[in-house]
Structure formats: C-alpha cells, structure tokens
Amino acid sequence: MGSLFRQIRAAIALNILSIPQRLWLSVATVGSIALAVGVLMAFLSLAEGFRNMLQGTGSDTVAILLRDGATVEINSGISRDQVRLVEAAPGLAVDAAGDPLLSGEVYVTVDAKKRNSGASANLSLRGVTPAALQVRDGVRVVDGRMVAPGSNELIVGRRVSDQFVGFDLGRELVLGNSVWRVVGIFAAEGVFESEVWADLDTVRNLFNRGSGVQSVRARFTGADGLAALQAYVEAEPRLNLDVQTEAEFYADQSSGTVTLISYFGWPLAICLAIGALAGAINAMNSSVESRARETATLRAIGFRGVPAFFGVMVEALFLAFLGGLLATLCGYLVFNVAGWSVSTLGEGFTQVVFDFTLTPAVALTGLVAALVIGLLGGLAPAVRAARLPILQLGAR
C-alpha cells in the first residue's frame, strides 16, 4: 500500500511539473473555466446584491400598511379617513409632542435620464410627510436639508444623484409638468437611495392623486406594539388593510427577482461550462499524449495504472481550481473593491440601483463549480491513461 501511495505522489508530481510543456493549452483551459465560473458568479453576485439591497431596506420596528390584497405600494390605496383611524391605533410609538410616528405616502413614477448612457428611465417619486425620516432606520440627510411642507422641493437618494442627470444639489428640473428644486441628498441602506422624495400634499396636488395615500409607515413599540396594531386593524371593519413589518415586506419583494436572476444565470453558466469542459478534456488528452513515453517507462518499472489515473485527475482539478480562483479574484476586484453598480426594474417599473456583491458563499459556489468541471473534464482522459497497454504507450 505504501508503494502505491509513493507511485501516486510521483505521478501527480510528474503531471503538475510538466504543465509548462503545455503552457498555452493549459492557459486556455484555465481561461475557459474562469469564464464559465465568472459568468455564474456575476449572476449570483447580482442576485445577492439585489437581495441585500432590499433586505437592508426593511426594519423590524416599522410596520407598512397596504390595501388588503395589494403586494406593492403602486397597487394600493388608503383613504384619508383610514389614515386617521390608523393614527388612533394602539401600539404606535410617539414623538416628543405625543403624536404617533406615522407617515402616509404616495408613490408615482417620473422620467429621468441615466448619466452613463443618456437612456430614459423611470424613477420613484415619493410624497412623504415630515415624519418620513423618523419611520425609517438608517436614512439620514448627508447634504442640504429636508423638503419644506407645501413646496416644490426634492430630496434625492445618493444613488439617484450619482446615476441620473439633473439631480445634483441646488439644480432645478422638470418632473411631470412642474419645476422642482433639489434641496437635499440623503443616504440610506437599501432601496430608498434609489428614490426621490417630495412633500406629500405637493405631490398629490401636482399629480392628481386626490386626498388619499398608497401606503402608511408607522413605528411601533416592540413586538407587543405590532401585535396590538394588527389586532386593531383586524377588529376595525373600516380598515381593510394588510399589516406587516418592513423587513417582511421587502423580503417578499426580493424573493421573486432573486429567483428570476438565478434562473437566467445558471443555464448560461452551464452552457459556458460545457465549452470549458470540452477544453478541459482536450487539455487532459493532450497531457496523456505528451507524456506517453514517460508513462510507458513508469509502467515498465512497476508503476500501476492507478497512479496514472490520479496524476491526470489531480492535474485537471488543479487547472480547474486555478480557473475558479482567477474568476473569484477578478470578481472580488471588480464587484467588491472597484464597486460595480447596476440598475434594474423595481416596483412600478422604476429603476432601482444596487451593487454586485461577491459573498463567501458565492465564491465557494464558483470554486465548487470549477472543480466539478475539472472532475468531469479529467475523468475520461484519466481512465484512458490508466488503461493504455504498455506496448501501445511505448509506441507513441
């Protein structure tokens, strides 16, 4: 048994050390595997970034109320009388004046142009009350100020200011049929940075939204506060509303899009992996051919077929690992270090901007995929190397 292990180590060393003799073929194999794994990682990082963006938006201490049956704000509608009933609900946190921390809001879409391409896109314009900042965790004004009630003023998310034309601090622009002025920029974790905020009454008047709202956000006092709010809404027949935490709402929003991105990513990566697999098989067959005489010599002095099998397999896995490592390194530098942002359609076909995120789980998935390609690519050549007769090997 010890002799067999020594033979396996010797065969593995021979295969690995002879890689420079097939340098360009080995480089092509590593590159094709890196491409397949890189595409997979890109889609998984895209899905992870979108998930993190939405899940980072939600709070466990803020409730969002929508019309019963509505899954997104744009399809919801809540009357002014219903908002007043919610204001009287138990379990709500209050400000220093004793008023409930609650913000009724409307949600409309407006046109904008992307900075990088000049292409038209839809943005979310949200009409908010002065309590909007108090019912959102982690949202802070980083430049300028909050909008004044009754004014045509805007406060925009930092990503909107970075990615779209005309939303710089102090600029005036036309949204709908009205002229607006950007008076502030805010930072936030998650989707809010892709929004534009204005005074609630101004948005309702200029966009003909009546006196109602589409959603209500309310900060509650602990788990008991949420339960009290939900019980109050269920017991009040005039409130045909759904109540859930922001965290639950945005988790539900993310699941469908993340699944869709994954459905696109895996098939494309598999198609590229088939090409990488063909390259790996070709490289391993070339490895077997180029070392035919060395293998014959080893077999003649007592080496078995098993060491030849493991030599080819380890070489294939080594090249595959290098390909996976290359894809991981490139992905980390592009996505996590340089920071690569992308925009996609969110609620109401509006643009949501977020970053690709290469997580350890995504990197591990990519490396495993690379090793699977190497395993499948090296299997047939390894079996072939182990089974070739000595006379046939020596004749090559």
TrEMBL record:
Residues 269-389 form the ABC3 transporter permease C-terminal domain. It is found in: Cell membrane. Its main location: membrane. It comes from Rhodothalassium salexigens DSM 2132. Keywords: Cell membrane, Membrane, Transmembrane, Transmembrane helix. It comes from the Bacteria. The chain crosses the membrane at residues 23-47, 263-284, 305-335, 361-383. GO terms for molecular function: transmembrane transporter activity. InterPro entries: ABC3_permease_C, MacB_PCD, Macrolide_Exporter_MacB. One of its GO terms (cellular component) is plasma membrane. It is a multi-pass membrane protein. This is Putative ABC transport system permease protein. Residues 26-235 form the MacB-like periplasmic core domain.
